[in-house]
């Protein structure tokens, strides 16, 4: 999604048409970041073909993760009861738009492309977001916390896996990690509920599958 501010629709049909438009924007329109690419201005690094393909795989995974985050937050915001929680979710989604744009730009620089399955990932994540939101705002925020903590852990794995000289990708991932940690902290402060077992385990297994597939496709 190129995140759009929430507004009350004239009716349910208008609301869901707006959600569909947001999905199409996320999946097919060039994302526009509010903040500059953290790696902009760094000298280009020479990567051999194996390194280039590996970094492209990592950035494709992160790009898909941002597509999923957009969908999750927008699904949650669509059914959030508290306007303050809705606004918090949409603000987080806007920062995820920055991440989406940075990852897309890095993929282009690496002569690669996003995942071919992003529409599938978006649809599944949006459905999960709606389901979480319907449980109530405490559970809504609990999903934010668990999602962001898992993303932080996966970004640590990617940072350790990057070629040492790829400072551009490293700057992007470090900034993304800091943003994700802040989203989790804000959700905890706003009253997030701890998700019951086995929800975090199912989320982790789903993310593992997504990462394995998106790295290649």
Kindly list the characteristics that best describe this protein:
Ferritin, mainly alpha, 73% helix, single chain, globular, 7 helices, disordered N terminus, 217 residues
CATH class: Mainly Alpha
> Which H/E pattern describes the elements?
HHHHHHH
Q: Count of DSSP helices?
A: 7
* CATH fold-level name: Ferritin
- Beta percentage is under 5%
Integer-rounded radius of gyration: 17 Å
Total number of distinct structural domains: 1
The protein's oligomeric status is single chain
Calculate the terminal CA-CA distance, rounded to whole Å: 20 Å
Estimated structural class? mainly alpha
The count of β-strands is: 0
CATH homology-level superfamily: Ferritin, core subunit, four-helix bundle
Largest sheet: none
Q: What helical percentage do the residues reach?
A: over 70%
Overall description:
With 217 residues, this protein is an all-alpha fold. It has a single domain, classed as Ferritin, core subunit, four-helix bundle (Ferritin, Up-down Bundle). The protein is 73% helix and 0% strand. It is built from seven helices and no strands. It has helices spanning 12-28, 49-79, 83-109, 118-134, 137-161, 167-189, 199-216. The longest helix is centred in the N-terminal third of the chain and has 31 residues, at 49-79. The two termini are 20 Å apart. Mean pLDDT is 89; it is low at 3-9.
């Amino acid at each position: 999604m190129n995140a759009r501010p929430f507004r009350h629709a004239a009716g349910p049909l208008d609301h869901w048409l707006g959600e569909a438009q947001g999905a199409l924007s996320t999946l097919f329109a060039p994302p526009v970041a509010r903040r500059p690419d953290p790696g902009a201005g760094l000298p280009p690094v020479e990567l051999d073909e194996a390194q280039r393909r590996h970094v492209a795989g990592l950035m494709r995974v992160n790009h898909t993760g941002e597509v999923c985050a957009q969908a999750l937050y927008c699904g949650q915001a669509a059914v959030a009861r508290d306007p303050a929680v809705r606004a918090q979710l949409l603000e987080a989604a806007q920062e995820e738009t920055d991440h989406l744009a940075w990852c897309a730009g890095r993929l282009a620089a690496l002569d690669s492309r996003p995942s071919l399955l992003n529409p599938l990932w978006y649809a599944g994540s949006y459905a999960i977001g709606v389901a979480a939101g319907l449980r109530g705002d405490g559970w809504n925020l609990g999903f934010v916390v668990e999602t962001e903590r898992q993303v932080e852990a996966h970004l640590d794995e990617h940072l350790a896996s990057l070629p040492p000289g790829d400072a551009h990708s490293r700057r992007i991932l470090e900034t993304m990690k800091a943003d994700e940690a802040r989203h989790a902290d804000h959700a905890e402060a706003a009253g997030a509920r701890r998700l019951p077992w086995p929800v975090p385990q199912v989320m982790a297994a789903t993310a593992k599958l997504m990462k394995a597939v998106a790295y290649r496709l």
